[in-house]
Write a structure and sequence with these properties.
This protein is α+β, with helices and mostly antiparallel strands. The protein is built from 3 helices and 6 strands. It has a 6-stranded mixed sheet with strand order 1-2-3-6-4-5, with helices on one face.
Length: about 140
């Protein structure tokens, strides 16, 4: 099966030797993703905004692989503050309320920088599209 890597141009990709997402066959794994904190729309103390930013960015990555958020079967959510659960859950449900992937919500001691409250990993399985027969 063919392997397809999605790179975003982040300096971390070469420094650490990874890519944003990998697709092999119908399976897609998306690396842990944190928010792009701009200090205005996305702030270091806003878990809801950080989660939405992550989900919006990953939605675009999946589109580059010809899949969608509907194909996500699992999310793994890491936070440095378990009390952010309600804010993170509210943002997560904006994308997954009807899809309902399996998920986990874990408090960890630190992420790569102190301004990050949330990091999410994703697994997706591309659904098979039915064959359309001519003349039907």
């Amino acid at each position: 099966m063919k392997r397809e890597n999605i790179l975003t141009g982040s300096p971390w990709e070469d420094k650490m030797g990874y890519c944003r997402a990998v697709r092999i066959g119908n399976t897609i794994e998306v690396s842990g993703t944190v928010a792009v904190i701009d200090g205005e729309k996305i702030k270091a103390d806003d878990a809801f905004a950080q989660t939405l930013n992550i989900l919006e960015r990953v939605e675009k990555v999946l589109e580059d692989l010809n899949v969608s958020m509907k194909d996500v079967i699992r999310t793994r959510i890491f936070t440095t503050d378990i009390t952010t659960f309600e804010a993170v859950a509210k943002a997560h449900s904006q994308f997954f309320k009807d899809i309902k992937p399996a998920t986990g919500f874990y408090e960890i001691s630190k992420l790569v920088a102190p301004e990050y409250l949330v990091e999410i990993e994703f697994t997706a399985i591309a659904t098979e599209k039915p064959l359309i027969q001519e003349g039907l």
